[in-house]
Amino acid sequence: MIESCSLYKFKCLNSMPVFITMPSLSPTMEMGNLVKWCKSIGDQIEIGDVVAEIDTDKATMEVEALQKGELSRILVEEGSHNIQVKTPIAVIKQKGDTDKDVEDFVLLNARQSQLSEKGEITKNSATYAAVTDRDDSLVTTKKGDKILASPLAKRIALEYGIDLNTILGGGSGPGGRIIKNDVLEYCESLPHNNNNMPPPSETIFTEERASSLRMVIAEKLTKSKQEVPHFYMSVTANVSMLSKILTSLKNSPNLDVKITANEFVVKAIAMVMSQMPQINSTWNSDGIIKRYDDVDISIAVAVKGGIYSPVIRNADKKSLKEIGMEIRSLAEKCKNNTIKSIEYTGGGITVSNLGMIDIDSFFSIINPPQASIISVPRIMKRPIVDDNDNIVVGYTLTIGYAIDHRIIDGMDAALFLSRIKQILENPIQVFIL
User: Residues 201-211: pLDDT tens digits?
Assistant: First the structure.
């Protein structure tokens, strides 16, 4: 930020140019993607006007102007990725400012950035783009003693034993830089023999830049798998009685909400968690374990580009119908990108359900700081042994459980899973307890 007018050599009377910066729109946001500019250079801007759309680590959100004036300069083009929070993305010219004031403002800010970074400006810096025409994609290698070539050109040449010095006249890239096509064309010009293989055929592929949401998921789960001491358990419940109840509810003309096995699983987990606070816990880096009184359960919801985990608050106190309605409402918000941060913050455990897909069993990765995660596959029709030792057709559900051993011991985890099984095998408990 600009501390004083004298520092930047401005003749300040009533105003001076101001930056629009990449805002921090969530507690975990460190970088964002500039999706679209909603204003053009020369447009007049009032306080509160929407000037841009930003793809954050959670959702696409609108950026409102905090100053009024004229949008004088755009420093970061729409479609730019991985822009650090607080990085200048545009300049607003206020009343009395000239174009020269704006130019000086940007250039002097760039110099301040250079000084603070010991003379280096990263390629993600908006000031970098503002003060130079240098194309970073063209300077991935430095000129050596003999040759100037792109990394890909060097790799292809090495693979096929080609001396880049034999490509006379240099390359077709900027400044005579040898690029991939130069090497491939040179290969094709050579006679093919046993010691001279034809140029490599290119693998056809498409590239897709990961969304901010996907980047956050990748970072958090990689860290979770590396740092959290996971251990795993599973239990198979005979859910034949539950299957009959679900069929009955499905055919009920008086039920206006669809009830699935997921609601029963969530309710069973909530009932047991209310009795086992050691399960309803989180861990922080200071070694502090929090035991929660409220039973809040996160539900994994898959959306394009990632996963959200909205929270069912006080799930132990809600009916199957209330749980079902809340899950569907939150899932719809996730898919429409209208979910609020408060709706996916917290939770003592996560339930990941793939019951709609032909998956027999699976184990999920814990979502820190939570202590565990439940994985729910499909209900399977299979032969089982009844109480009279007869083989009959029945229905089973194999629940996977991943546990953080820093917080939960094996005995507690086994007891927790066992009690969930008991409820699912005798689902009438959901209605009477």
Answer: 556 777 788 88
CA distance 314 to 274: 10
Distance CA 127, CA 114 (A): 9
Would you identify the CATH topology of the domain 212-432? Chloramphenicol Acetyltransferase (3.30.559)
Non-local (6+) Cβ contacts of 188 within 8 A are: 198, 199
Please state the φ and ψ torsions of residue 398, each to the nearest 5 degrees.
Answer: -100, 110
Q: What is the pTM of this model?
A: 0.59
Q: Is residue 148's pLDDT more than 80?
A: no
User: Which residues share a beta bridge with 383?
Assistant: 393
Tokens 């029963």 map to which residue? 264
Is the Cβ–Cβ distance between 403 and 372 less than 8 Å? yes
Contact 215, 57 (CB under 8 A): yes
pLDDT at 176 over 70: yes
Query: How many Å apart are CA 51 and CA 24, to the nearest integer?
Result: 15
CATH number, domain 6-131, options 2.40.50.100, 1.10.760.10, 1.10.10.10, 3.90.330.10: 2.40.50.100
pLDDT in tens, 355-381: 999 999 999 999 989 999 999 999 999
Q: Alpha carbon of 130 to those of 76, 88, 126, 127, 430: distances in Å?
A: 8, 10, 6, 5, 63
SS3 state of residue 321 = helix
Give the span between the Cα atoms of 280 and 296, in whole angstroms. Answer: 9
Q: Which candidate in 81, 192, 230, 405 is catalytic?
A: 405
| Active-site residue, 192 included | no
Structure tokens at 39: 């204003």
Quote the CATH superfamily of domain 138-189.
E3-binding domain (4.10.320.10)
